[in-house]
Structures are given as structure tokens and as C-alpha cells.
Write a structure and sequence with these properties.
single chain, alpha+beta, Naphthalene 1,2-dioxygenase Alpha Subunit, Chain A, domain 1, Rieske Iron-sulfur Protein, seven-stranded antiparallel sheet, 11 helices, binds FE2/S2 (inorganic) cluster
């Protein structure tokens, strides 16, 4: 049975949801400094993290700094055409090697005392080198960070336990129809939200992501097929309702075919299921990817501390070459307005969420109205944390029954 047939058959079975007890998430997951520090070490310090796409540093010599995890990193398109990542810390006295967010050079020169590195990280020049007794240049290369590509997307990992392909698991095959090599970054926007990053993820997962399609005012949806995938990733496929499906050109919500967005260049060979439904992959820990026939949308939530999240939204479209960016076309303008509204809406919704989680009487966040996807996502997070955080902070722990001090 094909992937689409499997999804369709699950969706056409009667729903068995509605009888289960709501799952509760202990509030300490969202407010406690020690829980956050465990996440930093065990999740963000050991997982492949999406940093952007190759087109952001498309040519040899281009570089960009990257500090979304609060660790200063430097991504370089090296002159040998390899994308590399280093800690942005000079091997002389630790000053940032690069101080501007983006640039292009064949060498990376620290501005403090002009130690200079090539784009493979090798220390190639030290002014007044004679003054440095016992300096061995080969021991002072920039410290590398694991960096791998998947379909033009750049991932980094400070302490890889497995290679990128193994970590992505089945999502690589399922998303193989997305010709991601030919995508180009069309728009990037961010917002800082005064709430724990898990609340932000929960909000993104509370309803299907339905970016506007040209000519459609509303995008109604039906029940989702939500599947936990190997590696802690999650797939959410939500058919449109009858009215939306027909307006899009489908015979019915389950008769998935290749569609185009009127007036916009299409992603070539995109699997019909991605064209005809609202599909989102949640790549653990913090990346959501959704599809339309003419563009791919990503959201990434970065915890700046236990109470603050940087939420990025980025659209990718088929490369438009030397033409003007399509961002000003009415269909894209509408989509970008929708994207800004999503960011603003989450910020407004969560404005007082963090303080509410600190109220002593509140011990758990009930998932009554949050999605099944959010429960699965929390459980996949727990799989990485269960050895280092108290059991009563894990998903489903009954608040109030056991209270153990969080490790400091
Ligand atoms: S700290 Fe970079 S050259 Fe001295």
C-alpha cells in the first residue's frame, strides 16, 4: 500500500478519539530553570538543529554567524565548496572571529589581534608569530561543529550521537518529492515571545497550519492523521473540508492530485498528498515544515531562556533566478500577512501564559484543547530527558502526587 493510501485509509476509519482522559503536563516543565538547562544540554546540545538553507551562503567565501541556541557559531561556505561550522571563538583569546552577521571573504581574520584562519578553519597567519613561544598553528585551528546537509538544508550538532540521515529517519524518504535543492529563501521573520518554547510549539500544533492558497478566502479542514515517526519526529496530515477541497480543484477531500497555486511557479514533482492537504512535519526538537504547491514554510522555536522564545517563520519558493523576488506578488503578500498574523497571534495568546504557569495552584497544563501532536511531541522530548529530570516533571505525571526537587 502506498504512503498516501495508508494515510487515506486511516483517515476514513471512524475516529476513536474522545474517550481518553486528558493528558496533563506538569507546570514545572515550563517554568523551572533546571528543566530548561536539561533541555539545553540533552536536547539542543545533542540534536541536529536546522540553521537555514545553503542559498543563504550560496557562494564560496560567504559566511554567517548563527546564535539561535545562544552558543556563538559560524557557518562558512568554504572555498573548497564545503559548508562548515565552527565555534565563533578565536583560538588566541576567545574573541569572536567574525563580528558581522554576514560577509564574504577567503579568510577569516579576528579583529582583536589579527589571527587569520582559512575557510577550513586552519590558522594561517599570526602577526609577530616569533613572540609566541611554543605556538603550533596546527593545534590552533577553529573548533569545528558537526555540520551536514539534507536537500539544501543545513543542520548542525554540537555532540552528534548519529549521522544526520539516521536522525532524519523515514522523513527523508517521505519528503523526497520536495525538490528542496531548487528552493530559495523568500521571506524570513521572527518574533520574541515571553513564554516557554514548549508553549509556543503547543500553540503552533494546536490547529493545522493552513497558509492561504490564491483565490481562497477560508481554508477549512477535517480530522488529522497524526503519526509519531522513528526518531521522535511527527507527521500531521489534515485533509481540507469538502468546500475547500472542491474550491482547490479536488473531487473530494480524499482524492489527492497534483495542484498548482494559480499564478505562482510550482514546486516540481511535489507529492499530490502535500499539494492537496495541510501537511506538517515536526522534526524533533523544534522545526515545523509545511507545504503548499508553490512554497514551503518552516517555523523554528528557539528557547532563549525558560521564559522566552525566539520564533522564526521562513518561506521558501522555487528559485526565481535573476527575476524580481515574487514576495510582492499579491498571492505571496497575502501569505506573508498570514504568516505575520500567526506570529502575532501566538505572541498575544501567550502574553500572560508564563505567569499563569507560575501560579502555585496550577500544577498541570491539561491537553484538553491542545493537540494529540503536542502530546506526542512532549513524549518524544521526554525520551531524551527522562534520565536527567525528575519523573514527576514528565508528560502525564499526575501533578501533586509526588514532588521531588529538581536537580540543580
Ligand atoms: S583574540 Fe583573536 S587574535 Fe587575539
Amino acid at each position: 500500500m502506498s504512503f498516501s493510501d495508508e494515510v487515506r485509509s486511516r483517515l476514513l476509519q471512524p475516529s476513536d478519539s474522545g474517550n481518553e482522559e486528558p493528558v496533563r503536563l506538569p507546570t514545572r516543565r515550563f517554568v523551572d530553570r533546571s528543566f530548561y538547562e536539561a533541555e539545553r544540554a540533552e536536547v539542543f546540545g545533542r540534536t541536529w538543529l536546522f540553521t537555514g538553507r545553503v542559498d543563504e551562503i550560496a557562494r564560496p567565501g560567504l559566511y554567517m554567524t548563527w546564535e539561535k541556541t545562544t552558543v556563538p557559531l559560524l557557518l562558512v561556505h568554504a572555498v573548497d565548496d564545503v559548508i562548515r561550522c565552527f565555534y565563533n571563538s578565536c583560538r588566541h583569546r576567545g574573541a569572536p572571529v567574525v563580528r558581522v552577521p554576514r560577509g564574504r571573504n577567503r579568510a577569516l581574520r579576528c579583529q582583536y589581534h589579527s589571527w587569520t584562519y582559512d575557510t577550513s578553519g586552519k590558522l594561517v597567519s599570526v602577526p609577530d608569530e616569533r613572540d609566541f613561544v611554543d605556538l603550533h598553528r596546527e593545534e590552533r585551528s577553529l573548533v569545528p561543529v558537526a555540520c551536514s546537509l539534507a536537500g539544501g538544508a543545513i543542520f548542525v550538532n554540537e555532540n552528534p550521537q548519529e549521522d544526520l540521515g539516521s536522525w532524519l529517519g523515514p522523513t527523508v524518504g517521505e519528503m523526497s518529492s520536495v525538490s528542496s535543492e531548487s528552493l530559495r529563501t523568500l521571506d524570513q521573520r521572527s518574533i520574541t515571545i515571553p513564554a516557554n518554547w514548549k508553549r509556543v510549539l503547543g500553540n503552533l500544533l494546536a490547529a493545522p497550519l493552513t497558509p492561504p492558497r490564491p483565490g481562497l478566502k477560508t481554508m477549512g479542514t477535517t480530522r488529522s492523521d497524526i503519526q509519531a515517526l522513528e526518531g521522535g519526529h511527527i507527521r500531521i496530515i489534515t485533509p481540507f473540508d469538502e468546500e475547500t477541497a472542491v474550491a482547490l480543484g479536488l473531487e473530494n477531500p480524499f482524492n489527492w492530485t497534483s495542484l498548482n497555486d494559480e499564478g505562482l511557479p510550482s514546486l516540481p514533482n511535489l507529492d499530490p498528498i502535500f499539494c492537496s492537504t495541510a501537511t506538517t512535519y515536526v522534526l524533533s526538537p523544534n522545526l515545523l515544515v509545511s507545504f503548499t504547491p508553490s512554497g514551503v514554510l518552516s517555523f523554528t522555536a528557539w528557547p532563549l531562556d525558560e521564559e522566552t522564545t525566539l520564533l522564526d517563520a521562513t518561506w521558501y519558493a522555487p528559485d526565481w533566478g535573476e527575476e524580481d523576488s515574487p514576495a510582492n506578488l499579491p498571492a505571496w503578500s497575502q501569505r506573508l500577512e498570514w504568516t505575520q498574523a500567526q506570529l502575532d497571534g501566538i505572541a498575544t495568546t501567550l502574553e500572560s501564559a508564563q505567569n499563569e504557569m507560575k501560579e502555585p495552584a496550577r500544577q498541570g497544563l491539561s491537553l484538553h484543547y491542545e493537540s494529540e501532536a503536542f502530546r506526542l511531541w512532549n513524549e518524544s522530548l521526554d525520551a531524551r530527558l527522562s534520565e536527567v529530570v525528575p519523573a514527576d516533571t514528565l508528560t502525564g505525571a499526575a501533578p501533586g502526587e509526588i514532588r521531588s526537587p529538581l536537580k540543580s
